[in-house]
Specification:
It is built from 5 helices and 8 strands, in the order ααβαββαβββββα. By secondary structure, the chain is α+β, with helices and mostly antiparallel strands. The N and C termini lie far apart (48 Å).
Length: 249
């Protein structure tokens, strides 16, 4: 069972990607001229956004950062051509793809860091799927973040259930639920997708929590797990507190 979960998780990681490592760090082009005032202001904004990510010291007990897998570095979004299809009308199957935000609603800047909680020793009868995911911060133009949050909510409400065809030829049945995150914020939602495989009554669950703070959307994503110890709520309050502490001055 554990091996099967790992295979599914790896497949999901391949599909989901990560907002800050999919494109890799964007290096500034070499130049002998000093940076302009606009360039300096842009770099300062990127540094502030990166400073709002969780650090090892701020993570809940039992968690640690995965800096090798997901670099906590600004990518100078957008990474590639944006889709002409808005989030609110994108295919339902893209709800399970973390990069739907940067594809359908590219932010001005985004940063991310990966994290995991190591599995506890358990018996084969009670496996522990642990916790594996990432935190991302996406900064939008004034007013745009609120529009993106509304679009995500509309897409989730439009797609309460749908079939999803995997590359292997297997078709899964996806069930979507949306709730508010248990943190005070300008806006928030938690998106949970339960994926049922054929002949397997117990679904795998992936979660994404979105919290809007002004023009920034803080996202905590937990990849698929069958018997998780905890959901995104295990990390979300610490992530919100870290971001607010970094931007309080």
């Amino acid at each position: 069972m554990r091996a099967r979960h790992v295979a599914v998780a790896v497949a999901a990681m391949t599909v989901l990607g990560t907002s800050a490592c999919s494109a890799g760090p964007q290096a500034d082009p070499p130049s002998s001229a000093p940076p302009s005032a606009g360039q300096s202001a842009s770099a300062s904004a990127r540094d502030r956004l990166r400073g709002g990510l969780l650090t090892q010291a701020q993570l809940p007990r039992g968690f640690h950062l995965l800096t090798a897998e997901i670099n906590s570095t600004t990518t100078a979004a957008p990474h590639g051509p944006a889709s002409t299809v808005p989030i609110a009308s994108m295919p339902c199957s893209e709800l399970g793809v973390q990069s739907f935000m940067t594809h359908h609603a590219p932010p001005l800047e985004d940063v991310a860091v990966g994290m995991e909680q190591v599995p506890e020793q358990t018996s084969e009868q009670v496996p522990d799927d642990a916790w594996f995911g990432q935190e991302a911060l996406d900064r939008y133009a004034p007013g745009r973040a609120a529009e993106v949050m509304a679009a995500i909510r509309a897409a989730a409400q439009r797609c309460p259930s749908y079939a999803n065809a995997l590359d292997s030829g297997t078709t899964t049945q996806e069930t979507v639920s949306v709730t508010a995150a248990d943190v005070p914020a300008d806006d928030s939602l938690v998106l949970r997708i339960a994926s049922a495989l054929p002949d397997d009554p117990e679904p795998y669950v992936s979660e994404q929590a979105f919290v809007r703070e002004g023009d920034v959307i803080l996202m905590v994503q937990k990849l698929v797990a069958k018997k998780p110890r905890a959901g995104v709520e295990a990390v979300l309050p610490a992530a919100v507190a870290a971001y607010r502490a970094a931007t309080a001055h």
